[in-house]
Amino acid sequence: MLSVFTYFPAMRRRYLEERIKTLFASPRGRFTVLTGARQVGKTTLVQSAFPQIPLLRFDALAERSAYGAMTPADWIARFPTAILDEVQKAPAIFETLKSCYDQNPSLRYLLLGSSQVLLMQGVRETLAGRIAMLKLHSLTLPELMTRETSINNSPFQEILLHPEAGCEILQSLLDPVRVLTQREAEARRWFEYSLKWGGMPVLIAEGMTDSDRMEWLMDYQELYLQRDLGDLARLSDLEPFARAQKIAALRTAEPI
Fold it and tell me: Taking the model in full, what pTM does it have?
């Protein structure tokens, strides 16, 4: 079975990068929470945006135990700024973070978590009113088309951003004899790709075949069902949910 960690995600610029930089530098963003599904690129994004900030991972039990044993004074002295990845796996740490927030106004932490329900439970109970929140989704079409350069907005985004030019943009798009530009041809190719495979970053990794993508998605579904849903809801029988998921998938973008 293909592991979901076999391939490294292809680098793409993200719209959220500039927003999270601005928010994290503001007084409101002292403690910023970034949520999103597994493998959408949360860790990759924050490492790209803040390469100088230490990344503390809470995946392993030994790491959780070590960080959990630290007092607020330890955190303030050792990690005045840090990225806490998968922090929802150490729920007891939220009380410590609350104390850190109240004691030292210069602290800045980025909290990442792929289990939004568990992460938000800790936030609501201890950090309510102290955090700013952002959510990262899978790659959009302009992001899929972008590598290390700046992201170019789609024509429809340009219409929303510049309504005064909307008529001119639409007339250009609807011209039946207009020749497609290279970028428009590339956009159509990526649009067809996204309809079939979605926008998970790992699926555009170099060397990925369609067979690899299908196996990865099957593994991802299995991982989600067994690790996330099973643990969260403590369900003994996941088959009814799996059937409901398939039915919902067949109705994607349709009224129910």
Answer: 0.79
